Amino acid sequence: SPCSPSNGSSRTLSAREMYLFDTGGQYLDGTTDITRTVHWGEPTPFQKEAYTRVLMGNIDLSRLVFPSNTAGRTVESFARRALWDVGLNYGHGTGHGIGNFLSVHEWPVGFQSNNVPLQASMFTSIEPGYYRDNEFGIRIEDVALVVEAQTEKPFLTFEVVSLVPYDRNLIELSLLSPEQIRYLNSYYEKIRAHVGPELRRQRLEEAYRWLQESTKP
């Protein structure tokens, strides 16, 4: 298939470029679909800004509080706004429903015009991106659960259930608002609390050290 690696199409990864990996699996207790983008060397200022603006969109949609039965398309632009601010955009959907032992891209949940209104207990991906042809691609994808917000009237928000740090090497902190930084810090605390003990239980000390380093406030 065109998606299978071959000696003809494969190439060596380099620390001088960005690497986008979209991964996941289907397990007895749920389906994962997660994308992270990393750079192991020195990213350019534009790469850092583009990555950070994608991350800002991911955070802004993830922490949004909105009325029950709101259509996904109504809130979709929150994931694009930080990119739109500087004339950037991406050409794919902002997220899709996640099926358990069904299709990973599970109809009819999502953020497009023909998706159903969002309700508590739905799982959706949140995945803004940015792509520059023949240069690099960025996508940051998390799975989020629609939950009731702590508001007087019954509003909704998202609870991100993907627990993988973002690449600190690509974050331009000066672009982030205090609210976005607070969100990141609480997300990192959650990752430490849930994933850290499991890595220790499995005696994965190198992975545990990486996690601690990657989730510093």
From TrEMBL:
Where do the Peptidase M24 domain residues begin and end? 9-147
What PANTHER family is this protein classified in? XAA-PRO AMINOPEPTIDASE 1, XAA-PRO AMINOPEPTIDASE 2
A single Pfam family, by name? Answer: Peptidase_M24
Q: Which residue intervals define the domain Peptidase M24 C-terminal in the entry?
A: 154-217
What is the protein name given in its UniProt record?
XPP2 aminopeptidase
The family line of this record is: Belongs to the peptidase M24B family.
Q: Which UniProt keywords apply?
A: Aminopeptidase, Hydrolase, Protease
Task: Give the gene symbol.
Answer: Xpnpep2_1
Q: Which GO terms describe its molecular function?
A: aminopeptidase activity
